[in-house]
Amino acid sequence: MQLHPVDIAIVLVYLVIVVVAGLMISRRAGKNIDAYFLGGKSIPWYMLGVANASGMFDITGTTWMVVILFLYGLKS
């Protein structure tokens, strides 16, 4: 399989973007313990919800939600 130069350029640009984004975020998160664990307390609620929902797409998250629903019911 031979890659076209455009394909190689796309992969390289992607890798550079990912590395630069990682370095920027690691510098910001490395300031203090709140910045690392809590995102500097500046993450909007909807982003936290999306992050939580994305973690529920695997089977363990789905199973856990079904167990909680079964144990507590819809009323909690």
Short note summarizing the structure:
The chain is mostly helical and 76 residues long. It is 74% helix and 0% strand. The chain has one domain.
Describe the structure.
The chain is an all-alpha fold. It has one domain. The chain is 74% helix and 0% strand. The chain has helices spanning 5-29, 33-38, 45-55, 59-72. The protein is flat and about 60 Å long. The N and C termini lie far apart (56 Å). The mean pLDDT is 84.
Write the layout of secondary structure elements.
Blueprint: H1 5-29, H2 33-38, H3 45-55, H4 59-72
Average of pLDDT? 84
Strand content: under 5%
Rg on CA atoms, Å: 20 Å
N→C terminal distance: 56 Å
Helix proportion range: over 70%
The ordered string of helix (H) and strand (E) elements is HHHH
Q: Return residue spans where pLDDT drops below 50 for at least 5 consecutive residues.
A: none
Count of individual domains: 1
Question: Structural class from helices and strands?
Answer: mainly alpha
Features of the shown structure:
mainly alpha; 76 residues
